């Protein structure tokens, strides 16, 4: 056994026609963490997930799930992971309860050990247990997909864009459930285009672009890579000309008396920037700052790799 929940080594996938989806990807998902797998559309995220799910054959390389090689021990590997795909996949004519019971049967879960009602309660669908699944809202269907992925109590849950099209309240309920699962020991792998969610939820983040892994770091360390910071300053009079200084990466007017100044954290501090503005003869009336976030880092890294 290994300490990694998922261990991917030199994973490659080339589709018919020569399209390279994955190019020697090496990735370790630590046990017990929430890990974000981010990247632009077409970067290769879903290909990784589909290989782990057994839906796509890799070209070369290896992958282990909870210590089980997906080629040598495919049954044990697949029993160790639950995957919530982007697409909503279940029979619309079954009820949520029937959907979970059938899925549990596929995994060989004995009837006495099934947790269908418990899972529906956890995703706030207990009152819909006997309704046709086709009558559920989009957000409810998403939550049913999460419950469906957990019927065999896997130690790893993969969520591929789980909040796409889900309103804010249902999104918060879903993340609350995901956090409870993680606190109970379940390792979570998350793909999302909502970068603020990834920054808030994930212990670690990997970014993939054009089939290559371009970074894999703890979330806070990754965010701290961003060097650009913005100070917005309101001064005491109208701006006929803009103050200029080599310390300013960029300066622009945001109002008749307002400036938006971009600088690099490794070259200046906010205090130094304000002193430079004052040295030009302006009195400062108000100040606000914008700290770099995951979106800033994401755009910097993916543009550099383009």
From TrEMBL:
Pfam families: ABC_tran (PF00005)
Record Gene3D superfamilies: P-loop containing nucleotide triphosphate hydrolases
GO molecular function: ATP binding; ATP hydrolysis activity
Domain ABC transporter: 6-235
Keywords in alphabetical order: ATP-binding, Nucleotide-binding, Transport
Domain of life the protein comes from: Bacteria
Name this protein carries in UniProt: ABC transporter ATP-binding protein
Species annotation: Sphingobium nicotianae
Lineage: Bacteria, Pseudomonadati, Pseudomonadota, Alphaproteobacteria, Sphingomonadales
């Amino acid at each position: 056994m290994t300490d990694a929940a998922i261990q991917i080594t030199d994973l490659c996938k080339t589709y018919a026609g020569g399209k390279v989806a994955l190019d020697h990807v090496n990735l370790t998902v630590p046990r017990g963490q929430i890990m974000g797998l981010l990247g632009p559309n077409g970067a290769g995220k879903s290909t990784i997930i589909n290989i782990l799910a057994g839906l796509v054959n890799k070209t070369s390389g290896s992958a282990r799930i909870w210590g089980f090689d997906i080629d040598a021990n495919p049954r044990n590997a697949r029993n160790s992971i639950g995957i919530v795909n982007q697409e909503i996949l279940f029979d619309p004519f079954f009820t949520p309860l029937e959907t979970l019971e059938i899925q549990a049967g596929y995994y060989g879960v004995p009837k006495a050990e099934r947790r269908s009602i418990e899972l529906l309660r956890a995703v706030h669908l207990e009152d819909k247990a006997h309704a046709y699944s086709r009558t559920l809202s989009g957000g409810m269907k998403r939550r049913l997909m999460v419950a469906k992925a957990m019927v065999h109590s896997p130690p790893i849950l993969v969520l591929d864009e789980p909040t796409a099209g889900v309103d804010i309240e249902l999104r918060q309920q879903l993340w609350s459930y995901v956090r409870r699962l993680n606190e109970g020991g379940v390792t979570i792998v998350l793909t999302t285009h909502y970068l603020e969610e990834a920054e808030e939820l994930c212990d670690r983040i990997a970014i993939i672009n054009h089939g290559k892994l371009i970074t894999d770091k703890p979330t806070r360390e990754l965010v701290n890579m961003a060097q650009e910071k913005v100070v917005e300053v309101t001064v005491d009079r109208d701006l006929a000309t803009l103050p200029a200084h080599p310390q300013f990466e960029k300066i622009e007017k945001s109002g008749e008396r307002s400036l938006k100044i971009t600088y690099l954290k490794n070259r200046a501090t906010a205090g130094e920037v304000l002193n430079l503005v004052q040295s030009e003869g302006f009195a400062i009336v108000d100040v606000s700052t914008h700290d770099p976030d995951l979106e800033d880092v994401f755009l910097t890294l993916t543009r550099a790799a383009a």
